[in-house]
Design brief:
GTPase activator activity, elongated, zinc, 24 helices, three-stranded antiparallel beta sheet, coiled coil, two-stranded antiparallel ribbon, RhoGAP, GTPase activation
């Protein structure tokens, strides 16, 4: 954009004005917050002033916060002690392992050297953090604050108690003065009554007696007046002292609040500093471990060994030739002794059957190589047994014959008694070729997938395709696909025989969607079709399908089977809940969901508009009535939103569209049987919303926006299910009853089996 100098000056002035305006607004906001805080403090004091025992409650809280500070200090000191102990342990590990891990030609030497340095750095960081928290930012500040807090609290409490004692003394004086006043008044009344009676009886009494009565009356009146004056003075003193106590109450409450605020501020600063130091101490660890992980993935097995051999720079071994020397009686030299037993054997065999010209050297060499291979293989097996090597990639070694006798020393895994056996007429849509087990495996309980293999004894160590650990002895392997497996794992094996060599393990979970979908002609990954096909075949009526989670260990085994066997995985003996869990797990672990990040904000906007159409508060609360497709009678605004969603989905790549259509059609079939499986479109939306769409990831493990958007994600999936014919127009030509007809045929075929499953689930 090109602008003139005058325009630039105007823009600059406008920017400066806006900046000043923002500063003024910020200043006013700060002042407003300060005023609010002051008003809040005043309100608290007023509430306590008007309450009975308000000061005592405030003093109790101040005493409690002192104890709370002490407890916080104790917690952090104990944790710091553990951190220091861990730090010292890391340092000891570093010092000991640094002296032993010194072979630069070994695999991953640089990785573990860097890991040791990072452990040392972490140990130093923990020690420094503990020292900082102990002496500067947490323990010492809180300890000093606690001492100051207690000192102020006791002073305030003493002032309050002193004022209360003064008022109590005044009240006691007032009560005594009142009692004396009442007594004096009563005596005065008696003296006056006696004097009046004496005057009335003047004829019979002497003048002296009347004077005496008058004098007593005068004395009683004087005493009553003095008692009244004392009584009034005590009342005034009590009123004055009560007013002073009220003023003292205001002062004390203000002082208590100030002390509590100071302690709160210290706790706040110490807490922020504590967790900031903890964050700084641990924030680098995930990055370090991720870096080590990514660096480890770049290592090619055998790379360090090849570099080591190249660096040896050894001279070539001289060739050795063996020739037949005829016996000569005249020769005084003894015959040349053979250098090896294998050469003697070759010589004897050649003597028994003389070879043709040119065969002698080749025959002896081949026997020698074979003998060396057998010895090396036996030594390698013994080394594995002795050293318990379990992490080497033995499966990549050539399968060579061994002359050693094999015996298993592996513990049998516990079988899961909760796995339900589902009998099916076929596997993967074709009739499998069941091989009757013979030989060493005839008495072993084989799974349905294991029965498709032509098994024999394992001839060389390899990795089990079922449990992903190494098999050394008494394992089984297929003669056709060369699948290796523990004998105990044959009972749960889920990979069928493909009648050709089984490929290596595939990185399936967490792999980019475009890479997996590119291997399928219709763009739908095989794992999605496999899981959905099995669920539609026998679990459409199962209660809580997709809502009830499977067993974690079985789900992990199924995921591993998919990565090992791909399309050859056999699911007829797996629980439908385990299969549904595998499907959800695969969708959640995609680096970018099927509905890409770039469409997320538009999808959330449509969901909020849909909830707003259904109800006035739907867009704010994320709640609304369930969607219903009423055909032409559907709300026009809702139909317009559905049309906008349809147009938005046209921006998806072709494999994403095909997969989303496939999943939506499957979920619609499940929703049609809501009375049996209790899974309405809204329930399915809650389950599949976070799996099919999510915001672009941030630094946090679970972003706040993703938590807030859960209802809107569910709304989009619910719309895809309810308005499936209108959104996916390619299938709209098919009558709605076609899906139901197919569903009913599947239901009738496996009705009895599904009812049994439902009964088991209800139990």
């Amino acid at each position: 954009i090109i602008c003139s100098a005058g325009d630039f000056v105007k823009i600059s002035n406008t920017y400066i004005s806006l900046q000043n305006l923002l500063q003024n607004i910020e200043t006013h906001i700060i002042l407003f917050l300060c005023v609010l805080a002051a008003r809040s403090a005043e309100e608290v004091d007023i509430i306590l002033q008007r309450s009975e025992g308000g000061v005592d409650s405030a003093l109790t809280y101040a005493k409690t916060i002192s104890k709370y500070i002490k407890d916080l200090i104790g917690y952090v000191e104990k944790k710091l002690a553990l951190e220091l102990e861990f730090s010292k342990g890391l340092q000891r590990i570093y010092q000991s392992c640094k002296q032993t891990i010194t072979q630069p030609h070994m695999p991953f030497f640089s990785i573990y050297s860097l890991a040791l340095e990072q452990d040392l750095e972490q140990s130093s960081g923990m020690h420094q953090a503990a020292s900082t928290l102990q002496n500067q930012t947490f323990v010492m500040p809180l300890l000093l604050r606690k001492q100051e807090h207690e000192k102020k609290r006791k002073e305030i409490k003493e002032q309050w108690l002193k004022a209360k004692r003064k008022l109590m003394e005044c009240e006691a004086n007032l009560r005594r003065a009142k009692q004396v006043y009442m007594t004096r008044c009563e005596e005065y009344d008696k003296a006056r009554t006696a004097a009046n009676r004496a005057e009335e009886e003047g004829g019979s009494s002497t003048t002296k007696t009347v004077d005496k009565k008058k004098r007593l009356e005068e004395e009683a009146r004087n005493k009553a007046e003095e008692a009244e004056a004392t009584y009034r003075t005590c009342i005034a003193d009590a009123i004055t002292q009560h007013q002073e106590l009220e003023h003292m109450k205001v002062t004390v409450l203000r002082q208590i609040q100030e002390v509590i605020k100071q302690s709160d501020q210290t706790i706040r600063s110490a807490t922020i500093s504590y967790y900031q130091i903890m964050h700084m101490q641990t924030v680098a660890l995930p990055v370090h471990y991720q870096t080590l992980c990514e660096s480890s993935k770049l290592y090619d097995p055998g790379q360090q060994y090849a570099m080591h051999v190249k660096d040896l720079q050894m001279s070539e071994e001289p060739e050795t030739h063996y020739e037949f020397e005829a016996y000569s009686a005249s020769s005084s030299q003894p015959a040349v002794r053979a250098r090896a037993d294998s050469a003697n054997a070759d010589a004897q065999s050649s003597a028994e059957a003389p070879p043709t010209a040119g065969e002698t050297g080749d025959t002896s060499t081949s026997h020698k190589d074979e003998h060396k291979r057998g010895m090396c293989n036996d030594l390698f097996l013994l080394l594995i047994i002795k050293c318990n090597i379990k992490t080497c990639d033995i499966s990549k070694m050539a399968r060579t014959s061994s002359t050693g006798t094999m015996s298993s020393n592996e513990d049998a895994d516990e079988k899961d008694s909760n796995v339900t056996s589902f009998e099916t007429p076929n596997i993967n849509g074709i009739e499998p070729e069941i091989v009757v087990p013979t030989g060493p495996f005839r008495n072993v309980g084989l799974s349905k997938a294991a029965q498709t293999h032509k098994l024999r004894k394992l001839r060389s160590p390899s990795k089990c395709r079922e449990c992903d650990s190494y098999v050394y002895f008494q394992g089984a392997e297929c003669e056709e696909c060369f699948l290796a497996c523990h004998k105990r794992c044959l009972e749960t094996l889920a990979i069928q025989c493909g009648h050709k060599k089984l490929q290596g393990r595939l990185q399936l979970f967490g792999q980019d969607f475009s890479q997996v979908s590119g291997n399928s002609p219709d763009g739908i990954p095989f794992i999605i079709k496999k899981c959905i096909g099995e669920i539609e075949r026998r679990a459409l009526r199962m209660k809580g399908i997709y809502r009830v989670n499977g067993v974690k260990t079985r789900v992990e085994k199924l995921c591993q089977a998919f990565e090992n066997g791909k399309e050859l995985v056999e699911l007829s003996q797996s629980s439908p809940h385990d299969i549904s869990n595998v499907l959800k797990l695969y969708l959640r672990q995609l680096p970018e969901p099927i509905m890409p990040f770039r469409l997320y904000n538009s999808l959330m906007g449509l969901a909020k508009e849909s909830l707003a159409v259904m109800g006035p508060e739907g867009a704010e609360t994320g709640k609304g009535p369930d969607l219903v497709d009423l055909g032409p009678e559907t709300d026009p605004e809702l139909l317009a939103l559905v049309d906008r969603l349809k147009n938005l989905l046209k921006e998806l790549p072709r494999p994403n569209t095909a997969t989303l259509r496939y999943i939506a059609r499957h979920l619609r079939r499940i929703a049609e049987l809501e009375d049996d499986n209790k899974m309405s479109p809204s329930n399915l939306g809650i389950v599949f919303g976070p799996s099919l769409m999510r915001p672009r990831p941030t630094g946090a493990t679970v972003s706040l926006s993703s938590l807030v958007d859960y209802p809107y994600q569910a709304r989009i999936v619910e719309t895809l299910i309810v308005f499936y014919p209108a959104i996916f127009h390619s299938d709209s030509s098919r009558p709605a009853c076609a899906s139901s007809a197919r569903t009913q045929s599947l239901q009738q075929q496996f009705c009895m089996q599904s009812n049994n499953n439902n009964n088991n689930n209800d139990k």
